[in-house]
Amino acid sequence: MRRGTLHGAAIAALLGALATAAPAAADQTAPTWNCRASVAELFGSTPQPRFEPLVANGDGTTGGDRASCADDREGLPSIDSPAGSPLNIHIQGPYSATALTPAFGSANDQAAYAGTKAADVSVSTPDGQLTVTATALRAEAAASCVNGAPHLDGSSTVVDLQVNGQALPLDDATLGQITSQLDNSPFGGLIKVLVDQKIVTANSVTVQAVRVELFDAAGSPQGTLILGEAKVTNQGVDCTTPPPSSGGTTSGGGTNGTNGTNGSNGTNGSNGANGSNGAPVSGSSTPTSTKKVVINGQNGGCGHLKMYIEKVDLVHHLPGHPHRATARFGQRPLLRGTIVNCKGLPIVGAKIDQIHYVGGGVGRIVKTGLRSRPGGKLTLILPLNLTTRTIVLRYRGNLASSKVTSRVVLHLRIVNKKGKVLRGRPPRNFVAAG
Fold it and tell me: Residue 42: inside a domain, yes or no?
């Protein structure tokens, strides 16, 4: 597979497999609310062509909105992207809905709603190098007049979001750049995943449960996938309560009525200020904290590390792949192992942490440089001047986190030619293979 952009022909093929909803034909000129809900959207560097099945009260071909909010419901047992798609997508139980309550009447008295949900969501590259999964997701947005001002708000939930089997840290609203070695992929190697996003303008709020953005090696956008989007919009609705009609006369009572009207005008001015402040949605639209996720190796994320002591003199193999062995001082012990992901695929280019615990007051020594080769194979030749130590080898699926995905502990006992156990720092009068 060559590097390049999301192929327009591939995405166009997706559209041919779907029956898209027709957009509304009539313009809506009166002030009104609008709403839109979509289970999944996939498009390239431009919004068209696009893959957007099961969009409620919207046009899945153009990505546009209908003229105004209306009741609409779209659902299927499951949806899958057809063969040839640049991303393999599977969604179980997708459902999108919009509603306007009451359906008829003044917009001041109406409430608009958009919501979507799905279960067992899976998105992957055709070669399987990158897989994004979630057991459930939901996005909702609503709009109405509250205390004389427009109120628009929304929320979303993502359950058990994982990349290549590695659970992502969802304690922050935004996950920063996720990098992965996507060899021979049309996407390059840069992916940005955002979770529970709330996009706010002066008259709308859009909630996105998961947003995946793909970039090439130069940083140019290549494609966008949105899972679970709900949107509501205020199209000119003035929530200010109309002032009472004047019934004043020329009599004394009429004069008092005029004063009352002046007082009402003052109240109207106050409402105008509140309306100006209340138009944007309440709550923060931009998360203040981010976390960076760096996938550790091609096919990495969820990993199973196996390491053992193969030799203690670079000549004789040890039987049974032991985790404990005794070596003569001045020899070079050899460690071997493998690293695979949760699907059993080898992780290539993975960085393995080495921590050596040495007695005699030396303490903890951290070493680097061990990486997996093709096939997920690992080989580590230790120095000649070792002393007795415990070696902890760790695989972290996310290099930007200290969380350990898999760990192996090896115990290496070093003795001199007289059989005395050597601890602490190596002897100053070092003699190889003494």
Answer: yes
Instruction: Examine the domain organization and report whether 284 and 203 are in the same domain.
Output: yes
> What would the two tokens of residue 361 be?
């007051």
Q: Give the tokens for residue 273.
A: 């200020």
Tens of pLDDT, residues 229-255:
999 999 999 998 664 444 444 344 444
Q: With pLDDT > 90 as the criterion, what percentage of the chain qualifies? A: 43
pTM: 0.61
Q: Which residues contact 330 (CB under 8 A, 6 or more apart)?
A: 384, 385, 430, 431, 432, 433, 434
Token pair of 329 as six digits: 């001082």
The CA distances from residue 149 to 140, 261, 271, 273, in Å, are 20, 22, 8, 10
Residue 251 lies inside a defined structural domain of this protein: no
By CB atoms closer than 10 A (0-12, 13-18, 19+), residue 206 is buried
Distance CA 174, CA 195 (A): 6
pLDDT at position 126: 76
| Cα gap 341→429, rounded to integer Å | 45
Same domain, 290 and 307: no
Contacts of 165 (CB under 8 A, 6+ apart): 131, 301, 302, 341, 342, 343, 397
| Mean per-residue pLDDT of the chain | 78
Per-residue pLDDT at 9 exceeds 70: no
Structure tokens at 271: 């409402």
Of 61-65, 100-104, 398-402, the one with minimum mean pLDDT is 398-402
Task: Examine the domain organization and report whether 83 and 153 are in the same domain.
Answer: yes
Q: At 86, phi and psi to the nearest 5?
A: -70, -15
